[in-house]
Amino acid sequence: MLDGDYIKKGLLFAPPPFFPAHLVDHLHASLADALVAYYPVAGRFSTNQKRDGKGSVIGCSVSIESAGQGAEILHAVVHGVAIADVVPPDADVPRMVHSFSPLDGAANYDGHELPLLADGVFIGFAYSHALSDSMACWNFLNAWAEIALLKLAPPGAPRALKPPLLERWSPDGGATAPVLLPYADLAVLVQRQPAPDLHERMLHFSSESLMALKERARRELLEAGDKDGAATVTRFQTLTSLLWRCVTRARWQQVTMCGFASNNRHRLRPPLPTEYFGHSVYALSTETVDAPALLARGHGWAVAAVGARWPRTRTRPSGRAWRRGKRSRRCHC
Predict the structure, then answer these.
(1) Which PANTHER family match (predicted)?
(2) CA torsion 138→144→146→150, rounded to 10°?
């Protein structure tokens, strides 16, 4: 994940019932409280080199140095821009939205931004994906939001969210040793490439349309004699397969596959707690298939192909097998 992009998301709100300056102060105070429990978010990465007996560097390990370095809040005012300009109906995502998130092209830092629009508030953030997976990131953001709400609630209001589990997970069940990467300089892993000039569009699927897609897949699988596949179709499978076939039709590569990352916490046996802070994902992909065959076989076949690669459970690997399977992989999010 060291060469992956930052997680960059944004939340758009109507204007608050108080002055913007008070909102910034309120979010700043609640973020400070959230970082008490999620203190790694306010830290920095530290690289340690390991040397052999001759003094030559044989590898590096990366850890989080949590010494109160802090996270950053940026406050900006965008004059003449309204909510309708940020989320226009049936149009490309405006390029100005990218400017609402900080740290464009940066690595290993954490920041938050609060642009104020003419008639609303956009809370954007940049979060190092090397720090944790998306599940842990959203747990942190939900904790921040809960603290912000509790500061406005009557005294004694209960908290619903549990604190993060910061202890490193090990397949052996014991303490986790730092992973040694076989590089003398980790800078060689980072490949900074300019973002492609693409049009972006937000797609919205109603519950009714997803149910119709699911029913269409069930009918096609039943007609093909796949009763088991038809009985286990999910909306996730139907939407994923729809996007897979649409992208394949647009790109028209000769060979295609569909890949995605799965949260592993609840699939491990025994499971990891939802509050585990770190990475617990599994890279999944369908078998490769010729593009013409994917489009010709229909929606139901693609749904079954996605479902076949989506595990319900996964047992914890032994420590030896886990270490044997570790490898370096470039990741672009």
Answers:
(1) FAMILY REGULATORY PROTEIN, PUTATIVE (AFU_ORTHOLOGUE AFUA_3G14730)-RELATED, HXXXD-TYPE ACYL-TRANSFERASE FAMILY PROTEIN
(2) 180
